[in-house]
Design a protein that fits this description.
The strands form three sheets. This protein has a five-stranded parallel β-sheet with strand order 6-5-7-8-9. A two-stranded antiparallel sheet has the order 1-2. A two-stranded antiparallel sheet has the order 3-4. Strand 5, helix 1 and strand 6 form a beta-alpha-beta unit. About 35% of the residues lie in helices and about 25% in strands. Helix 1 packs across helix 5. The chain has five helices and nine strands. It is α/β, with parallel strands linked by helices.
């Protein structure tokens, strides 16, 4: 942990292991000011919104089409035109599912998928990657395996396959949450 002395503005490096749960007092080596340090509070864990879906695609017509289909099925949609906006909205809105074009401008959808799956607070987020390539033989491996996505859909199949894939992921997400709650209830209380 790096701390700045309020009196002399000196930068102090303090190991977190030296901080007790109630805090610890330190003296600035430059000006002798006594500092009280406490461990930073852990951020509150946010739950993913089971009815919210983030749609990110560079084509506004495709975004409108996807958002319309999803809202007709009872989902709330948040849209993003590029990868930077998608990343910001994913961390702000916490949707349970993100539908992202693989070749999004600024940051590609596959890269966002990998980054968000590695974060502890968003690793449970589901991803459907959308590709404009209409031939699966173009890939050496399935995009799902390459980018940690939960599913993949080609642009030309959005109107026929999207809702089925979303519903399947929604059911899987609900089942995982129920299993987590069940496993927490089965453990005996520690005294």
């Amino acid at each position: 942990v790096v701390v700045i002395c309020p009196k002399c503005r000196a930068r102090l490096k303090v190991e977190e292991t030296k901080l007790a749960s109630g805090g610890a007092k330190f003296r600035c080596p430059k000006c002798s000011t006594v500092l009280m340090l406490r461990k930073p509070a852990a951020p509150a864990k946010r739950n993913l919104d089971e009815k919210k879906i983030l749609v990110a695609h560079s084509n506004p017509d495709t975004v409108r089409k996807i958002a319309s289909v999803l809202s007709d099925s009872g989902y709330n949609t948040v849209t993003a035109p590029d990868g930077v906006d998608m990343m910001v909205k994913a961390l702000k809105e916490y949707p349970f599912l993100s539908i992202a074009e693989m070749a999004l401008p600024k940051i590609c959808g596959s890269e966002i998928c990998k980054k968000l799956k590695m974060r502890a607070d968003t690793q449970g987020m589901k991803f459907i990657l959308v590709s404009s390539i209409h031939d699966k033989t173009e890939y050496r491996e399935e995009p799902v395996l390459l980018y940690r996505a939960d599913d993949y859909i080609e642009d030309n199949n959005l109107s026929t396959q999207l809702i089925d894939k979303v519903e399947r992921l929604s059911e899987r997400s609900g089942r995982q949450k129920a299993e987590e709650n069940q496993s927490g209830e089965d453990q005996p209380a520690v005294r």
